[in-house]
């Protein structure tokens, strides 16, 4: 059942974002920021952790999950280090994901021939 919930909930998130992209004039970058901020706000309110318990990877892999992870990191760092944790927490918890994205993006640019769309 875990796989089923992850599949349909993750698919629902992706479908809703696709509808948002198709029906609005928002640029993809703004939609990405909207998703990360929404994930952080839902985490702050206490909704997103319950959602993660239900959906597992279906809720943690999309950008909403990245916002949740940022908020959790900041919350823990503020408990441990005080005010400076606001700046450190998010980077500590997401460093592996950000580094992976940069490394694999760079490797993909070496393997393939990147160019601007015409």
Properties at a glance:
118 residues, 6 helices, globular
The overall number of domains is: 1
User: Which structural category fits the helices and strands?
Assistant: mainly alpha
Which descriptor suits the 3D outline? globular
Calculate the terminal CA-CA distance, rounded to whole Å: 45 Å
The share of residues in extended strands comes to under 5%
- What sequence of helices (H) and strands (E) makes up the elements? HHHHHH
Sequence stretches where pLDDT stays below 50 over 5 or more residues: none
Q: What is the radius of gyration computed over CA atoms, rounded to a whole number of angstroms?
A: 16 Å
Number of helices: 6
Task: Give me the count of strands.
Answer: 0
- Average predicted local confidence, pLDDT: 89
Fraction of helical residues: over 70%
Largest sheet: none
Gist?
This protein has 118 residues and is mainly α. The protein has helices at residues 2-23, 28-45, 48-55, 57-60, 63-81, 85-111.
Kindly describe this structure:
- By secondary structure, this protein is mainly α.
- The protein has one domain.
- Helices cover 83% and strands 0% of the residues.
- The protein is built from six helices and no strands.
- The chain has helices at 2-23, 28-45, 48-55, 57-60, 63-81, 85-111.
- The model has no long low-confidence stretch (mean pLDDT 89).
SSE topology sketch:
Elements: H1 2-23, H2 28-45, H3 48-55, H4 57-60, H5 63-81, H6 85-111
Helix pairs in contact: 2-5, 5-6
